[in-house]
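Field guide to reading this record: the first block holds the primary sequence, the second block holds the structure written as discrete tokens, and the final block holds curator observations. Each block starts with its own label. This record concerns CCHC-type domain-containing protein, catalogued under organism Hucho hucho.

BLOCK 1 — SEQUENCE
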Amino acid sequence: MAQNKPNRPVPGMGLANTLRFVWTDKVMEEWGRETFGRNILMGCLKIEVKDVLCLQGNPMESAYDVTFHKEEKHLEIMKKVKAMEGTRPLCHYQVTSLARNNFRVVTVNMYNPHVKDEEVRAFLGRYVDNVSSARYLRDSLGFWNGRRGFQVLLREDPKGIGGYLHPPAMFSLGADRGTLYYARQPPFCRRCMAYGHILASCSSRKCRFCGSGKHEAKDCDEPKACHGCGSSAHLWRDCPARQGSYASAAGGRAGDGGRRGREGPDDCNGTGEKTAREEEVIKEAARGEGQREEKVGTGGEEGKEADGGEGVEKKGMVTAEREEGTAAGAEGEVATGQEGEAERG
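BLOCK 2 — STRUCTURE
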């Protein structure tokens, strides 16, 4: 028999159009799947099979999760559950919605495709929660179109439109510009960078950097804030949020989005120049290469001298042998001539 747990685990991103029915009766044994479907769903709530996408049992929570095809049906059943709360047989279950109204899929378009996913996620983290990994959107031919999709949860903000804090639809990460959009996004003004109206109806001359109404952005002399974390202690090029992830470093920076020709934050000092340590390593490697070449050259000369000496000696020996052979032949001819003269005499 289940206990009524106050803090039940719910998926971080929620489950769209889903209601969870948790068994709370401590005396009766919990109902099986067929009994629950017949008595609660079809009998009490008058739900038809065609309206339900999935009915899943959750033994760990002593619950059933019911997912509907449409959001309208989910809201309708939730209202009916609240109206019938405490009546039999629904009184055996505690019903909660797993849907998150603040769940959004944010599509980000960076005009520089080499911007890292970690940098975009760091920027989104200023406004939203539970930012997922990026999903690259492709066209019908399979080419990436520069857009990346992120699953997020909007933060609650009583002063925000709809009760949520919304990330700016236009933004910059250093010199790289980007835009984003998502479902049910409020109108956004490109002049004052505020939600609620568009440029054509904007009457504000408020600075989008400091929020002052006394000057515009082009005349602002206030210290600039970091585009990534919002801190005024540093700019985007020195932001710690730009540091690559462990997976990216372990994979040989394979997750850098192809930013090979452009120096990244991990191998630069923030200005695009190599660090002094790397220059020293390069010089040491060059010196070692030069020493190896010098050794190879010296060894070659010694080899040539040795080969030359041996060749001279061999040549001298061959010449001596030839001279000895010639002398022996001459002596043989003289001896033969003397023997011939003796026989004639």
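BLOCK 3 — OBSERVATIONS
The chain has a mean pLDDT of 75.
The radius of gyration is 42 Å.
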